[in-house]
Amino acid sequence: MSSDLQLTKRFGIENSRNIDVARKNGAYSSLEKLFQMKPTELIDEVKKSNLKGRGGAGFPTGMKWSFVPQNTGKPVYLCVNADESEPGTFTDRYIIENDPHLLIEGIICGAWALQCHTSYIYIRGEYEKQFEMLNVALAEARKAGLVGKNILGSGFDLEIWTHRGAGAYICGEETGLIESLEGKKGQPRIKPPFPAVVGLFNCPTIVNNVKTLCHIPWIIEHGGDAFAAIGTKDSTGTNIFGVSGHINNPGYWELPFGMHVPEFLEKYAKGIKGGKLKAFIPGGSSTPVLTPEETEDLYLTYESMMAHKTFLGTGGMIILNEHTDMVRALKTLTHFYADESCGQCTPCREGTSWLDRILTRMLAGEATTRELDMMVEIADNMEGRTICALAAACAMPVRSFVTKFRPDFEKYIKPAVFAGAAVS
Amino acid sequence: MAVKFSDTSLKEYEEVATHYPDRRASLLPAMWIATREFGVISEEVMLYLAELVGVPASRVYEVATFYTMYPRSKRGKYHLQVCHTLSCHLRGADELKQYVEETLGLESGACSPDGLFSYAHVECLGSCHTAPVVRINDDYHENMDLPAFKAKVEELKKQG
Questions:
Q1: CATH for A326-410?
Q2: Residues A129-137: what's their mean pLDDT?
Q3: How far apart are CA B66 and CA B28, in angstroms?
Q4: Which candidate from B28, B85, B138 shows the least CB-CB separation from A128?
Q5: At what angle do helices B27-38 and B57-66 cross, to 10 degrees?
Q6: In A, residues 323-362, which contact B (CB 8 Å cutoff)?
Q7: Is A389 near chain B, with CB under 8 Å?
Q8: pLDDT, tens digit (0-9, with 9 covering 90-100), for A202-258
Q9: What CATH superfamily is the domain A19-228?
Q10: Residue B32 to residue A164, Cβ atoms within 8 A
């Protein structure tokens, strides 16, 4: 089944963004079957597939959908998360550039399952070109009767609108995204209530990642069992894995889950650039970093990553070679999280900046051993004490960098003149 | 009130506002249209948007200052956004940053006196496999090593 591409099958076809080309190559072919299925049947099929949300958290999609109450009398909303801001992550962008109609088809399927009639695609502000591409594709789909009233004579109505962000990582968090869609600053909400019950405009809402929805047409056409047969028991189907950093062939590939990481790095990424592997970040900058030894028996699955106390995350790997200064590398991340913290929770707002300031001092040769230990303490005090996961997203790389690559940090430590005097 | 949308922009905004069941949700798109039309989201623009969208001025100010992409001061004709997050850092973004800061003499957030260039030190642009990346206005320039970046800047200087 490995040759069976689900997400990238129309990539590389000339003018694949155009609706006629896309339809000639299979786009929207799942809809006929879709409208013959009961929404609950589709949810069951997605549960059977064991599809997990591709945005990073890996929550089972069918289960998430089943949390939506259908008897509230309120509309249900489906929000598509195309905010894609986790450092190291860049593949949703290529779905939009190459096959926006796959996304629209996936949204129609998801909306049918949820009996939702309005969907918003939240796309990050920097993707201005991709925002325009989506608007063109939506206009084409509307003209073809695939979006709007009575889709293909099914009696089902669905409007899909695009909503452009304006530069805020936190809007990738689902309740931050909802706040931003409502025209506010994107500060995450306290849960519960979960968005499935009280979400956008206080109505039941599902937020799904781009790739998650793009798998649904395949599941409808081939069945949940066929999807579950790809990959491993706990990591089913395919994913688009991306790789960047010190690598000879940075890029992205759609692969079934389960590939051995060293094999992926050799076969697809064509080896480490500029020396040996020093550190491996598996799925976006917030996932704990691994040493080369730890990658030896590492596989591209949720369970293998968990066994190594890290996460598959978004599947966006970052490679660091042996010449990398880990202090400078981590400094780019603490700067990122300090800049992107929404400021709502004290442990995150203060913690991310403290960590960033300690690294600034360290790079200037002014930090002490005490401050190095303090970094881990600060990280421990941030995680789990905030409304959303941004604090943890910063704490995890900090703790793993400092504990696994401590000698790199010690090189910058100012020698103490006498005990206790160096802390000023 | 001196500041207001042109008829075309107003029509565009009123159409977008129908996408939401609550008009207040149309503040972000209104601010994008305002960015295009006025260039800078000044306090005067914020007051106009508050009235147009139907939200308190404080809400507009919050949104204008929370997000990084709405300009609150004048930008150059070419707005250079240099990514420096991890993947770009690993592939040489520091050199690009140094070039802008030292050779063009621009601090992050500043605009050159002739109004040609402004510069922002930005976080991950989502193009990590083609690092380092510089976004100039709305266009991504990928795999930007120092010579390519210098050549691009020189080309823009010539174009004026």
A1: 1.20.1440.230
A2: 98
A3: 11
A4: B138
A5: 70
A6: 324, 328-329, 332-333, 335-336, 339-340, 342
A7: no
A8: 999 999 999 999 999 999 999 999 999 999 999 999 999 999 999 999 999 999 999
A9: NADH-ubiquinone oxidoreductase 51kDa subunit (3.40.50.11540)
A10: yes
Kindly provide the b/e burial profile for residues A284-294, where b requires at least 16 CB atoms within 10 angstroms of the residue's own CB: bbbbbbbeeeb
Cα separations (Å) of B113 from B71, B134, B150?
Answer: 17, 21, 19
A260-321 maps to CATH 3.30.420.360: no
What's the pLDDT score for residue A4? 82
Residues near A74 by beta carbon (within 8 Å), at least 6 away in sequence = A202, A203, A204
Task: Indicate the residue of A84, A252, A320 with minimum beta-carbon distance to B129.
Answer: A252
For residue A1, the model assigns a pLDDT of 38
CATH superfamily ID and name for B78-159: Glutaredoxin (3.40.30.10)
Q: What is the DSSP letter of A254?
A: E
Span(s) in chain A for CATH 1.20.1440.230: 326-410
The predicted model gives B105-116 an average pLDDT of 94
The answer to whether B64 and B51 have CB atoms below 8 angstroms apart is: no
Could you tell me which residues come within 8 angstroms of residue B95 by beta carbon, excluding any fewer than 6 positions away?
B145, B146
B128/A90 touch (CB, cutoff 8 Å), yes or no: yes
Closest CA to A210 of A90, A39, A115: A90
**pTM for this entry:** 0.96
Question: Are the CB atoms for A313 and A284 separated by under 8 Å?
Answer: yes
Sole residue written with tokens 């707002």: A349
At A2 the pLDDT is: 39
